[in-house]
DNA sequence: GATGAATGAGAGTTCATTCAT
DNA sequence: AATGAATGAACTCTCATTCAT
């Protein structure tokens, strides 16, 4: 990588960092490209030179972020933890992270794009497959259903859980409300 | 009710309907008051005469909507259904309804206001209390936890479920992922 | 005057009072007809029924006010005071009064209209004539000049003088800055 | 100064000129930023990029204008003219100039800001001090009073005097109405 | 290639005035 | 005759995007 590319790489990271931080604070429609450019010490024009539009810029930032997140997930999946611990770890890996996946849902989910969504889906399929192999997920629940179930919990955890609530929530995950 | 009041009432409903529909389609920040006014066959100025600000207009619309929704819930709670059926009915009462409670979370939840949130919370408390009396909700789960759990499911159902998935989701609600 | 006319008269006075008070507080362009109507416990439509336009309404209000003011001036002119005392009295009669004659000058002076301005000019002519007769205003100063001079002082006094400054200002009026 | 700065400087001047001219013609609240932008051959957005708000734009324009005006005054004060001639020159330097200092008083005086007002006050103090030294302003008149007196005349001259009236007005300034 | 400046299109909001009762 | 409701036109201001250097 030559000097030009390194510089571009660095600016891209600054832009991503600023965009990410401001997105969380104010939400997609309330952050202006000018603000992001200012926070990244870059000209607004540079943002457009790099990404074309505001939307595209956020899309790339989110894909970048999602790739990093998925790397963490994969690591957890490959670890030596027991299966329930893995699930817990995955869910807690989200906690306190990008809440905007919830907040400006329509905007942001659409931005996240098919590629990232597909990657995430594939990770889920592996996670579920492993769960079935290890006997934690009964066959009678269809993949689609379990995926939705997992997703629901992930979203809940993304909003933030205080640690004292994490444990009981996970118990509900496995055993539900009925106590018998 | 005289002519003036009837007319105003009617226009208010038109505005609420237009606002609700457009809010779902595009989200809070992407809908302009002009669009809503046009859809409601009303001048933008009228919207401001009625509600003062865009924000206030949505707040009142949401409160109105929430009151109607709560009325349905109460009716279900007072019905002769078995408890699990009641829960199911409450959840399905949301399906296909106002998705925006999720989508522009920051904006809209804030708009919903304390009054409505409190009303909803109180309904939940009654629902949970009844569940405990009838033995469906064990004492060992704190109110706070159950409320969060219910909320999580409600939110999931709000996004829409096809009926074939409703049943298994409710099974998970009571018995969790574990199948033993 | 029958009942209808009395009612109209009363409403007109309420409107004038509200308009006058709000004009002083906020200035011509920052007061809306709706505000005035509200303050006068009257419908905005009534204001337009009576006066046609906002501008016309203020014009009539100002003419009304000016007529009352001129009546006071005439009384002073006809009184038995010494001439310099009369001048002083006229000037102080303005103090603390309608400052807007200064503030939104362009708007308001234009509103005041030719009729009122002419009445005021005529009063000044009488005042000056009397001053000449009594030897206080030398012939070498043209009417036009003296009128302007008086006006300048009147405007100054309209902005408000604290009583301790009134006396020296009047001394300057007669003897100027030179002290010999 | 590079190309960017020159261009910005030029546009700023165009905006100031347009704002000044239109302010005199129509008064603060009746001039829209759009009008000013059009007259300055600039986009309305540019005005807001430069100054943030309409108010701030006028404030800066007035400060700019006042600085130039004060420079003229200082030059007169330092000149070799006799004191009365200096006073006359200062007053005539205003003639035909910014009448709005009178007209939208509330708005504009507030915009002029403390800085400019303070600069003007300081110039007045110097002018008065010089007048005392040279024996044209007797000690028995307090600074405050003289300042007000000067101000009153300045305001009068700002409204415009035809030259034939300037001389007698200045005679009144020194000797008042009394002729003895 | 990167920037600071500039902008067009549109946002929310206000208000003098008119309309329907 | 008087009103409450309704509005069109205009306002200040924002922002994603483009232009000129």
From TrEMBL, chains A, B, C, D:
Keywords: DNA-binding. This is TetR/AcrR family transcriptional regulator. Residues 32-51 bind DNA. The keyword Methyltransferase does not apply. Signal peptide: none annotated. Gene3D superfamilies: Tetracycline Repressor, domain 2. SUPFAM superfamilies: Homeodomain-like.
